[in-house]
């Protein structure tokens, strides 16, 4: 196969020079690997061989980086690189020039591990930076793994997230969710439930009529927020199970002279209607965007 030939001449490399050398070498080998695979008859065997050689190349590069990291002068001595065809990828031992014996204590080989205290200041900073980066990547990987596990357990679906957020918000306020049917009347049903202590017999139909009557009496205030004619809109509001929203909440808060609080998972977590009303009466309902398969929905609350 094509490979790199190392000639006897050596060179001293700084960290950025070693990085450039590795990039050049990897690019060269990758071209050769792809060519071998493309020309191979037994592609499965060749791919296996290529994987092994690619791993060996990566391993050698890591050893060279490690040796540079623990060098006292932030340099590494390697044979000069000449990209020509050869039979095998050089090993780490073939590329790293042996240290002169006089630079080694007692003429023995340099230890593979050097005490941190003997590192140069630059090497210490580089080591610290690499350790911090490794820890950061590990934290990110752990977080991603945890998020993936939660997703596959169904804990990170929009419904699950909204449910957890709403439960936390309700708990903070000493409340729990009171479900009402998801039938187009949900907002009015939730308010009727909230009004039961003040107006026990109030119905969804009555609340629709109160809202429509207020809208018609205050056309100038609301007409700009409606896509259709306000008279036609109010007819549908009274006679059809169309959903209520912020326009109806504003109208009902004013007509009933009360304050209405809507708790929701999205920010802001609380919306208030009728704040201009000088009253301690407060009706609390919940707005859900994802919790129900039918779509947007309102629920009421009870005290815990």
Automatic annotation (TrEMBL):
Location (main, coarse): cytoplasm
Catalytic activity annotation: Thiol-dependent hydrolysis of ester, thioester, amide, peptide and isopeptide bonds formed by the C-terminal Gly of ubiquitin (a 76-residue protein attached to proteins as an intracellular targeting signal)
Cellular component terms per the entry's GO annotation: cytosol; nucleus
GO biological process: endoplasmic reticulum unfolded protein response; ERAD pathway; protein deubiquitination
Subcellular location(s) per record: Cytoplasm
Gene Ontology terms for molecular function: cysteine-type deubiquitinase activity
Name the record gives this protein: Ubiquitin thioesterase OTU
Annotated signal sequence range: none
Residue span(s) of domain OTU: 175-304
Pfam families per record: OTU
Stated role: Hydrolase that can remove conjugated ubiquitin from proteins and may therefore play an important regulatory role at the level of protein turnover by preventing degradation.
Top-level taxon of the source organism: Eukaryota
Biased composition (Basic and acidic residues): 18-27, 50-65, 97-111
Biased composition (Polar residues): 1-13
The entry's keywords: Cytoplasm, Hydrolase, Protease, Thiol protease, Ubl conjugation pathway
Annotated spans, Disordered: 1-27, 44-65, 89-138
Lineage, broadest ranks: Eukaryota, Metazoa, Chordata, Tunicata, Appendicularia
EC code(s) of this entry: 3.4.19.12
């Amino acid at each position: 196969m094509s490979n790199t030939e190392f000639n006897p001449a050596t060179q001293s490399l700084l960290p950025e020079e070693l990085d450039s050398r590795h990039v050049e070498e990897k690019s060269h080998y990758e071209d050769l690997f792809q060519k071998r695979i493309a020309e191979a008859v037994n592609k499965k065997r060749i791919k296996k061989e290529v994987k092994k050689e690619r791993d060996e190349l990566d391993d050698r590069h890591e050893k060279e980086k490690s040796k540079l990291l623990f060098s006292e002068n932030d340099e590494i001595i390697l044979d000069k690189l000449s990209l020509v065809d050869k039979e095998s990828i050089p090993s780490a031992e073939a590329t790293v020039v042996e240290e002169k014996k006089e630079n080694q204590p007692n003429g023995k080989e340099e230890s593979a591990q050097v005490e941190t205290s003997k590192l140069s200041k630059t090497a210490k900073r580089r080591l610290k930076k690499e350790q911090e980066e490794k820890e950061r990547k590990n934290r990110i990987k752990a977080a991603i793994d945890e998020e993936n596990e939660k997703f596959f357990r169904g804990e990170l679906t929009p419904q699950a997230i909204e449910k957890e957020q709403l439960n936390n918000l309700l708990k903070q306020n000493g409340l729990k969710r009171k479900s009402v049917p998801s039938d187009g009347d949900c907002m009015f049903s939730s308010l009727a439930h909230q009004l039961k202590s003040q107006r026990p017999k109030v119905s969804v139909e009555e609340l629709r009529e109160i809202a429509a009557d207020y809208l018609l009496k205050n056309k100038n205030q609301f007409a700009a927020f409606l896509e259709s004619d306000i008279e036609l809109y109010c007819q549908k509001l009274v006679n059809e199970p169309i959903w209520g929203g912020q326009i109806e909440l504003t109208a009902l808060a004013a007509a009933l002279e009360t304050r209405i609080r809507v708790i929701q998972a999205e920010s802001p977590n609380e919306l208030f209607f009728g704040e201009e009303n000088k009253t301690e009466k407060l009706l609390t309902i919940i707005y859900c965007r994802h919790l129900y398969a039918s779509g947007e929905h309102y629920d009421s609350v009870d005290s815990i």
